[in-house]
Amino acid sequence: MRYIVAEAGRVTDCTATTSSGNVELDETTCRLIRERFRFKPSKDEDGRPVSSIIIENHSWIIDERPEPTATPAP
């Protein structure tokens, strides 16, 4: 994932640099990063907040057990 942390510490942009193979999962990951991640922003040499780019890996473990089948009513 690649995202930008703005001067206020909020994520302003997010993209999947390498797809998980599932577009919905990639989009959900970015949405969660934008909604939930908060940072102390980077600072320049004068101590002023500056935006920064973060590149990192995120892994999901998806349980792929089959859905239980419904049993007919007696």
Which terms summarize this structure?
two-stranded antiparallel ribbon, TonB_C, alpha+beta, elongated, TonB C-terminal domain-containing protein, 3-stranded antiparallel β-sheet
Q: What does this entry look like structurally?
A:
Residues 2-54 form the TonB C-terminal domain. InterPro entries: TonB_C. It comes from hydrothermal vent metagenome. Pfam families: TonB_C. With 74 residues, the protein is α+β, with helices and mostly antiparallel strands. The protein has one domain. It is 19% helix and 23% strand. It has one helix at 23-36; strands at 2-5, 11-15, 42-43, 49-50, 52-55. The strands form two sheets. Strands 2-1-5 form a three-stranded antiparallel β-sheet, with helices on one face. A two-stranded antiparallel sheet has the order 3-4. The longest helix has 14 residues, at 23-36. The mean pLDDT is 90.
